[in-house]
Design goal:
It comes from uncultured Coleofasciculus sp. This protein is an alpha+beta fold and about 150 residues long. The chain has helices at about 5-25, 50-55; strands at about 45-50, 60-65, 70-75, 80-85, 95-100, 105, 115, 120, 130-135, 140-145. The longest helix has 24 residues, at about 5-25. The structure holds FE2/S2 (inorganic) cluster.
Length: about 150
Amino acid sequence: MNRRDFLMWVGVGGVASSLPIALAACSPKAEKSQSPASPPRADGFQPIGTVAELKQNGQILKKEFATGSLLVVSNPTDSTTVLAVNPTCTHKGCTVEWKADDKSFVCPCHGAKFSAEGKILKEPASKPLATYEAKIQGDSILVKAS
Ligand code: FES
């Protein structure tokens, strides 16, 4: 085997051995807590998760909601209700993170901060987060995309 054949053999082997890792990273199991939301009901509300799921994870993030991404958190002033926002930061589009201790959404990119209701608390964002009507019904969390 000459040098060229050897390098080709190593290159093919490297690609072949990394294929299962690449496939695993792309599989739906990698985003276990971000499964697609169920279809909307006749009243426009869409089941997006359960109260148990919200309590366990502290939030429910859906990347495939009707209007884009959706982040649902427990209302910090009334734990019997929930709040739903589009977590896409209005500054440059990063995904904001819920900070329960501070009762706010904070953008990891440039530090914008939003209230639990999506209002701007700190720039550079110049528009509030989009919000959605959300409610708890039984053990289900429902959000209306409108
Ligand atoms: S993208 Fe959020 S502060 Fe810049």
